[in-house]
Design a protein that fits this description.
39% helix; 4 helices; single chain; alpha+beta
């Protein structure tokens, strides 16, 4: 039987705090969502002033990144390059940049999804959160 790493609440709080710092330092109103490896929501944080739709987009981006074990931007790029069939993928709704998987020793242990600003900035906030774990 194999064993694998997993996120604990302390990890999630570190990620959320670092992501919040990144967003606030740039003056960005965002929603930060953190999910486990199955895409199940562990944390949702809505900063003041963000559009309500971002409370749906951030978790969807995180779920897509966790389940696909890759940045959600990959799917956005595929679709933008003509692979429209990805729009019919079952249970995959967050195919926009801003979802980043959390990889530990080759395992995807979860993901961070951010929504509220430009997609590249959403991803920047997600990566800043993940960097707080010091995974290198």
């Amino acid at each position: 039987m194999q064993s694998k790493p997993y996120l604990v609440l302390e990890d999630v709080k570190k990620i959320a705090a670092a992501a919040e710092r990144e967003a606030i330092s740039n003056g960005w109103a965002v929603v930060i969502a953190i999910v486990d490896d199955g895409g199940h929501l562990i944390w949702l944080q809505r900063l003041d002033g963000v559009a309500p739709i971002s409370t749906h987009l951030a978790p969807a981006k995180a779920k897509t990144a966790a389940m696909g074990k890759r940045d959600s931007k990959i799917y956005e790029d595929l679709i933008n390059n003509g692979r429209y069939s990805f729009l019919s993928a079952p249970l995959v709704e967050g195919m926009l940049e801003g979802g980043v998987p959390i990889m530990v020793d080759g395992y995807c242990v979860g993901a961070v999804g951010v929504s509220g600003v430009k997609s590249a900035e959403d991803a920047q906030v997600a990566r800043a959160g993940i960097a707080a774990l010091g995974l290198a």
